[in-house]
Amino acid sequence: MGNSYAGQLKTTRFEEVLHSSIEASLRSDALTPRPVFSQLYLETEQQLSSPEAGGRVDNEEEEEEGEGGLESSSPPDPYQMHPTPDGSCTTDGFCQAGKDLRLATLSSQQLDVPAGFLLVGAKAPGLPDQLLVCAVDGRFLPDDHGHSALLGFSGNCVGCGKKGFCYFTEFSNHINLKLTTQPKKQKHLKYYLVRNAQGTLTKGPLICWRGSECRSRQPPASTCSSSLFQPLESAGPPAFASEPIPEAKASTPMGTQQAGPASEHPPPAAGSPAVFNGKDAPKHPQLTKKNLLALARPSALGVLSNSGPPKKRHKGWSPGSPSAADGGFLQGGGNSAKYESAGVSSYAPQLGLGGLAAGTFPVVASGEPVSVPDNLLKICKAKPVIFKGHGTFPYLCGNLKDVVVSPLLYTCYQNSQSLSRAYEQCGAATVQPISEEMQLLLTVYYLVQLAADQVPLMEDLERIFTRSWREAHLAQSRQPQPLPAGLGAPVSPAQLPWLAGLAASSCDNSVHVIECSHSLAEGLSEMFRLLVEGQLAKTNYVVILCAGRNAAMDSCIAVTGKYQARILSESLLTPAEYQREVDYELGSGKVDSLGAFLSTLCPEGDLDTLLDRFYQENQGQAPSSVPAAASVDVNAAPVCTGHSPQLHSLRPFQLAVAQKLLSQVCSIADSSTQNLDLGSFEKVAFLICIPPSEVAYQQTVLRVRHSGVLLELGLEKENLTKQRAEQYVLKLDTEAQTKFKTFLQNCFQNPHTLFVLIHDHAHWGLVSSAAHGLCSQGDAPVGLVDRLLNCREVQETPNVLTLQVTSSPYALQTQHSLISPYNEVHWPVSPSPEADLYQDNKKYFGLSEFIESTLSGHSLPLLRYDSSFEAMVTALGKRFPRLHSAVIRTLVLLQHYAAALMAVCGLPQMRSRTSVETLAMAQGLLGAPGRCRCGRGPMVLLRAPCAALAAAAFERLARVRERLALQRRFEIILAQPGAGLTVGQHFVQQLKMWQKIEDAEWRPQTYLELEGLPCILIFSGMEPHGESLPRSLRYCDLRLMNSSCLVRAALEQELGLAACLVGEGAPPEKGAPNQALESDMDNGNEQLGKEGSTSEKRSPTGRERPCSRGSASSSLSSKSSGSTLCGESSGPVGPPPGERAKQAEQGWGSAGSTTEGPAAPPEQWEHPAGPGPWPDTGLRPGQTHVPEPATSSTSSPCALTRACRRPPVVILPKLVHDLLTSTDSSGLPKATSLLPAPSVMWTSSFRPLLSRATTATEQSLYYRQWTVPRPSHADYGHPPSARGGSFHPRRLLLSGPPQVGKTGAYLEFLRILSRMLVRLTEVDVYDEEEINTHLREESDQQYLQLSDPWPDLELFKKMPFDYVIHDPKYEDASMICSHHQGMKSEDRGAARKAEDPCGRRQTARVRLSKYAAHSTYHHCRQCHQYRGLQPRCQLYESTLHAFAFSYSMLGEEVQLHFIIPKSKEHHFVFSQPGGQLESMRLPLVSDKSHEYIKSPTFTPTTGRHEHGLFNLYHAMDGAGHLHVLVVKEYEMAVYKKHWPNHVMLVLPRAFNSAGVGAAHFLIKELSYHNLELERSRQGELGVRPQDIWPFIVMSDDACVMWSMVDVTCAGERSRELSWSERSVSLKHIMQHIEATPNVTQYALIGMRKWSSKARGGEVREPFSRCHVHDFVVLNVDLTQNVQYSRNRFTCDDVDFNLRAHSAGLLLLRFNRFSVTKKQMALGGPHTLSSNAAVTGHLAAGAPAQYICAPDSKHTFLAVPAQLLLEKFLHHHGHRFFPLSLKNCSHPVLSIDCYLNLGPQISVCYVSSRPHSSNFSCPDWKFSGLLLYLCDAFVGASFLKKFHFLKGATLCVICQDRNSLRQTVVRLELEDEWQFRLRDEFQTANAKEDRPLFFLTGRHI
Question: Which end of the chain is more exposed for a tag (fewer CB within 10 A), N or C?
């Protein structure tokens, strides 16, 4: 009776169990009752044949009531309930004591659950929709497979608290089940009850009673494990456990059997992220078709202290063995919830020993236990990792701690058998999933192709399955064709072993296949036997399959390779477990054996002994071999410049991003939701939230303080102290809540202040606030970010704008994101058209640039790995399998650092004890201060994520430095996130001297302030927090990076430490070709490399890369190390052989000695991208050195100055390096296909790959579609937008690569946001006087009265036309001469004012009037409807209409497209409602109405969708009008987005590269064609053609205000007048113009340009007959035969004015009206052709290079020919017309065109058309003749009318060379002009771009 706990009953419970067993036997209907004692444990009599049996979808709500009657096959007996005691409650859902038991009532209450008891749900017949909460002893409940449940019952009532119910019959009566059948626990106890992420008690998985079908289901199609297998192409990272995505609120079931932990010892306390009632979470989700619910996080309701034994009392189960509830490591090993967030696994309850998460799969034990051999780890040197595959998996017993079992492969198989919803919608549901046999065969093929240095990646295997399924689907969907090989015929179970063995036969025993006849237990036993016997020493993978039992296949795959097994087993640890493992090994002294072994590798003795001896020999003095720092003369002129840390300097990219942020804020303000009213704010305030890093905090405070933003925002006054600046930066630690509460109070108290809440490094700490209280992570409570930034006050306060800034936005870009994709602003990435717009002299050098440096085959890349270090770590890992790799790597690296420092200090024998890379760092660190006159030196960054290892590294390096007497040569700094910097006083004084700091109390608080300090910075912490590093960083040593737990965000953050800005003209210096070193990379060490190098065994699809990506040579080649490690396998990366190392030692010998003469080049730290392994000489062994000429020391920059121009060298673990340098099928680095962030998970494995051309916006949409947050994520509770979730209305996301300048960008954003609020009522406008006013003709004849409101037509016709251009924007254009200006030529040069050398035009800031035009930034209630920003209203839905018309000059039909909102359709005529567009309605000339403007307004625009002044609501004073925006085709979408209620006229695609002349040309011709259509349409209604209104308005998109001058004079003809100017509406001006008498007789009507400097003379005459610009009212009827030049880019309006005047048409300018133009930096009509490519090409060369000789080898420019011509003539017109230079008396004769020949050349315009209005010039002699594309009207006789100076020049311009020659002949030019062959030119265009040709000649 004294049975122990191990598989038997305790004496205290024996009587109860015996009683229950006897009762059950008596009630049984079986003929032969079973023995009582044999029923103490239920026997297993029924096995599920395959895991698919658990994949059936249950209808849990409609289960049959008889389902639970599993103990008897007879029908249930009628049951009579015992009578209820008097006075007891009989209400359903209540116990007899009257206490409520319903789950809906108790879900939020805390219940007292005794130890060992579980909460379960009981179903009552009277409450079909309710569950009753019960507390049941867990020993009487089955495990996840229906086994190990004791007979009988023991439970408590959670309502009244009554305990001790020993019979379920009694208990059912107490809780009022009111049963009509025999009470049975199997029938009525249905569900486990669990708590979700919010702590609410919910229905969990079904209780798997014996005999009932197992409710474990297959994972849905959306399930995707992150990483198990390394990519096929190349080596990659280890496995990452990623939790699947169940489609239910309950978690997923997992196996109950446990394997040993991944580490040798049980960790002291491991977190279990998902615990169900104290046991591992059963994987039992509910499948739903529509909703994709993430994994819920239940919390422990009770700790199961006695969970019971397995189903049989086999010897493998003992009291000390881990059980189902012990929380130990699963056989499934994989922690599927390990990445719930950064370190979230430590947030869960600390239960059990190992704390692996739930979420694996149902393990069906076969009853055939397999004993794990003793000392397996000692024999195999690694823990085998077994991946469960298909079918059932046997129990393991014995030495469970030496094996790791994972379910990830099973999950992958299940995913590949489920079709994605996307494919089902495409009709792919008929395609059968991949068979189990094909899955296993593809897995074998994949494993066979892996090299010995590669680790399998699960995502690659998923991709293989997906590709195979797609190929099968395509083959079935096509016509009958032979299927691809391997897919044509299904693989039968009988063929599978043969095919798998055949595939494995070609891999040199790397993959071993074991076939079993009965069960996997045989194969596992055989594998363990082979492992113990050493027969699998060269085998990396063992495939075990059993395909002959019950026609179902069982399989598993064991990873036995030492290299792969170690990485995979360590990858199954969560970050918290990783930390605990390392802490345990360091604290328990387990590393002592490794340290002792390392000390034996040095034949000279222990390093510490050598250090002590060296210290004694040198008597504590610095060694002479180390160059001393140069002496510094404080009073001398500084020789090192440019090294002071720049805390704030704005770059073009930062300004551009700040403007994009501002634009997005304005878009929010202008949206119809009215969530942000910018007009109500007077000032801006802000608060910056950063992670709890002291350095990052101080860095942000300094940047805020030095940026000046506090002063500009008016938040602080002068003499800003650091303490005041700290008020605006919040460190998210334990004290953050108080400061944040103050911030919210300020928000409430200042409603007219816009508060910007900036969350910097926003990807950190995204943990749900529901996790609060479980535990804390460092100084930051769990869920703090969620509680502060996602609180209701922040979301609902209308004056709070949230900006989240991050370099890894992936965790914020999920289906549940709170940020709208439209509110994302991404940093411009170069090269891209967007980035090319910004000219920046700094180039960002980030991850992609580091990867590009590895593509060079002739130089050492900046991104590389240390081959000798990796080889030594691999070898030691096999010798010490029980130590974690991080511990081994740290100790080896410290050994290398110590040996390298000793070698540089005069111990040359230590060179062979270190690696080339480490030695180069030591030489650069110690040698550089002696070469810099200021004593500056480089920084070496040593990344050590684990705090314990970082502290150990600091202590070890500090001791080595102290023994070598180098305390004053370089500093060692331990950087911990929660602590500040500690720098020695000596180095503080140096920093103060370098940075000229006089504050005695100053101490460096940021890494930037360490600029120039020679130091080793040991950077601790699991992830960086945005700290910036100085430019003196030369080496970024990431060899200790946690390479076993990587996701994309982690990779980018770690590599972001080395990111920097380099000068545009200083690319990374490349080293010389190093053939000897490259050959070393392919050779293995004979002592360590028995397995040999496998660098040539790559995946067939991988890209071949140069061998130089590893370190150049290896130094682990001494005899001592070789003999000591003899017999150890070298691992995947073999070091070079001893001969190579000896050659290297010879090179190092010369490097260590003091070099003489100028032949010694700089140290390696000066040239980080150069040949790192060969410092000082820079040569390979055997290479001859050619000394460079010695340069003056005063003229050459110092070493640090040269080094700071280049990015640092980054040294990575080989796994990470291979992952970054390998590419997937899309051409992107393999890292981009990893899980994007640890706190998210994939929605489906059927997702596409990111393409190489994917933009940041497209990438965001990709992750928003294919990722969901984990339950611990802060966004988990937010519903997806697809299911009714809404985005936060005032939240933006700024993403950009690390260290690119995001802080400066958002500080600048705050500045310009404040300016915008101030300037919402102000605008910068052009304020320039009219030019050439002294050339205006002064006439005594008075044509008009000064007070006339309109001109008299007859008098106006008598006015002379003023040819001179007076618009100030044409100040640098050629002046047009006429008969009355010819005699004043000498005055012109003096009258023109000097040009601004910077090309700036004069502007003034004025206040906007109430009649101003506005951009997108303006919004008010009056014009809200005008803008069309109410998407709910159907009036603003637009339709696209095609409109075609033919034009003879174009030679083809022109097809335009109109985008017409429904609210504007009344302006157009359609064939029928919604039908074909026929015309645009035109009013009548006789129409008189003050409610609308008759002339439609056309505004050509480009690049100003945000800044263009298209909001004319206030300008028109609310009057009706038609405004048409003329846009280019590629800008149609963005203009439509910002102006949804405007009519758009989209130019044809052929006009995308045309100039503004083309836009004006099409507007005019379209308008005339529409006039003809309207005359025809209205003519049918009896309207005369001349009665149709013929005017349109062509307006510039920068016209902001209009003004009117009121003149008061004494008499009609008095010259004494007074005048005043006032702002008027455009409506007033247009109605005044439209009311002009005989208005249809005028061709063009315009107005004066506004200027504050206008004089009375300019407004004295009310009207002028002259040029009109910018805002023109055009009569399309009169100008029918006058066209705009469609090829022109500049001065097209001047050219058109001259054409119109020469045609005899009247040009009228109202001098009393003026238009004001706003200054705009980007876009505009003048840039209609200036896309980014054109701008870049024009900037690339000087204007003189815009032309070239025909058939020359000149570099062609991708720029329109006409633009090149105009630009060349503008800048170099004097080359063609030298006699015309500053010679207005003899201008250039220009026939039928006006081209700008430069400001120093005058032109005379003459029209060749018959009856043209040309002035008479018979006596003029012209200095040149310009014939531009002349037509048939120009003849030889016409040219003979004009006279030219001797030596005058001619320029003939034609479309091609043939036309050029024909023109010369037709015009008989050779009679008077002399031509030379060399005087023929063309524009610098390629032939396909149709260049222009021109010929020059001299007058004879």
Answer: N
